[in-house]
């Protein structure tokens, strides 16, 4: 089980409502990628706080944008691993 699924499971069992990013196992089009990116920002709007699952401290390009958006909207942000 990957770290994001494990965090989702642990938080859910702790009674936290988890609004997680979507997952895609197959290649997606640029249009689908853009739509998912916009949807992730809307999910941040719904959240009380943002937990970034960043194994080994890694943060990718889209996650960096989402962190900046969460910061700009005043959402508290925490990380699973030191950055």
Structural class: mainly alpha
What is the radius of gyration computed over CA atoms, rounded to a whole number of angstroms? 13 Å
Beta-strand fraction estimate: 5-15%
**Measured distance between first and last alpha carbons:** 22 Å
Shape by Cα distribution:
globular
> Which whole number gives the mean pLDDT?
93
Oligomer: single chain
Tally of contiguous helical segments: 3
Largest sheet: 2 strands, parallel
SSE string, helix = H, strand = E? HHEHE
Unreliable residue stretches: none
Textual characterization of the structure:
This protein has 83 residues and is mostly helical. The chain has three helices and two strands. It starts with a helix and ends with a strand. The mean pLDDT is 93.
Keywords, separated by commas or semicolons:
single chain, mainly alpha, 3 helices
Per-chain topology:
Layout: H1 3-13, H2 30-46, E1 50-52, H3 61-72, E2 77-79
Parallel strand pairs: 1-2
How is this structure best summarized?
This protein is mainly alpha-helical.
């Amino acid at each position: 089980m990957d770290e994001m699924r494990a965090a989702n499971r642990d938080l859910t069992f702790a009674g936290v409502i988890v609004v997680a990013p979507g997952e895609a196992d197959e290649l997606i089009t640029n249009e689908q990628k853009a739509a998912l990116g916009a949807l992730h920002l809307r999910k941040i709007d719904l959240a009380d706080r943002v937990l970034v699952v960043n194994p080994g401290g890694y943060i990718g390009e889209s996650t960096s944008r989402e962190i900046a958006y969460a910061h700009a909207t005043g959402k508290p942000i925490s990380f699973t691993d030191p950055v």
